[in-house]
Write a structure and sequence with these properties.
The protein has a single domain, classed as HUPs (Rossmann fold). It is about 40% helix and about 15% strand. It has seven helices and five strands; from the N terminus they run ααβαβααβαββα.
Length: about 160
């Protein structure tokens, strides 16, 4: 169908927030099962990739809400992010599992989740379902366990150790 969204085309993966509602409307019209997750994804590693691949398997379309640089600084401290939002969004968009990336500036993705109203809301295994922001706007909320041994904080720590 010619009017169908071109899911998977790199140029179409980065969506500005004002365009998001129209994209969601088109996906719903196509009866796509929408999965949403979010995070900083500062230094992308195997744990992130496995997490995103598992999230994608829960539906047809994976939308990733990406914390803006200002949001990451507020959440993680002045030394973060290591990679800016343009670099992080480009790397995420290059992943096969990721269909769309939306950068948000708030500390939580609540407003984004309200807009998306995902069929499945996904967070990492360190979250208790009852504490996941926006779960009331999703049909289902799922946690995915972390891959042992992988974390951005651990990677940054190892780099800092090598500098000493």
């Amino acid at each position: 169908m010619q009017d169908e969204l071109q899911i998977g085309k790199p140029a179409s993966k980065l969506i500005p927030i004002p365009q998001l509602a129209d994209t969601i409307k088109q996906l719903r019209a196509q009866e796509r099962k929408i999965v949403f997750t979010n995070g900083c994804f500062d230094i992308l590693h195997k744990g992130h990739v496995c997490y995103l691949e598992k999230a994608k398997r829960l539906g047809d379309v994976l939308i990733v809400g990406l914390n803006s640089d200002s949001s990451v600084k507020r959440l993680k401290g002045e030394s973060r992010p290591i990679n800016d939002e343009n670099d992080r969004s480009t790397v995420l968009a290059a992943l096969e599992a990721v269909d769309y990336v939306v950068i948000f500036t708030e500390d939580t993705p609540l407003n984004l989740i309200k807009t998306v109203a995902p069929d499945v809301l996904v967070k990492g295994g360190d979250y208790a379902i009852e504490n996941i922001v926006g779960r009331e706007y999703a049909q289902e909320t799922v946690t995915i366990p972390f891959v042992d041994g992988y974390s951005t904080t651990k990677t940054i720590g190892a780099i800092n150790q090598e500098k000493q």
